[in-house]
Amino acid sequence: MYGRNLKAYKTTNLEAEISVADPHRIISMMYDGLFERIAQAKGAIERKDLEFKADRIDKALAIVTGLQTGLDMSQGDVSQRFYDLYEYVKMRLNDASVNLDTQPLDEIIRLLTPIKKAWDSIPESEKQKAFAQRSKLEEEGR
Length: 142
What we know:
single chain; mainly alpha; 6 helices
């Protein structure tokens, strides 16, 4: 009973946070969720809990796909590089799942942690400038 109530609270809390979050915060939350699912998958592999492992890998794959589909491919090489990185991450998630190996999960964390840290260190003024720029382009019909 307690576990179910806690899960409902967490779900409601997450939905409330997302409903007021700016796009920058949502990406940060997606990375947090991805890292959490990877850690859970790693623990499941170590415990040989195959059902939970499969669920956590599936959720991690969904987050990576969300990050990938959210890319603005009109930005050229940078967007393509992120797209390719996310493809690689999905491949490594599948490797970990099929081979019951935690090494690919550790590799993913090593690859994405600097990106997450850089993302979180973007100054508020730059976030606001990017948001204003994006809004202007949308108004112009781009």
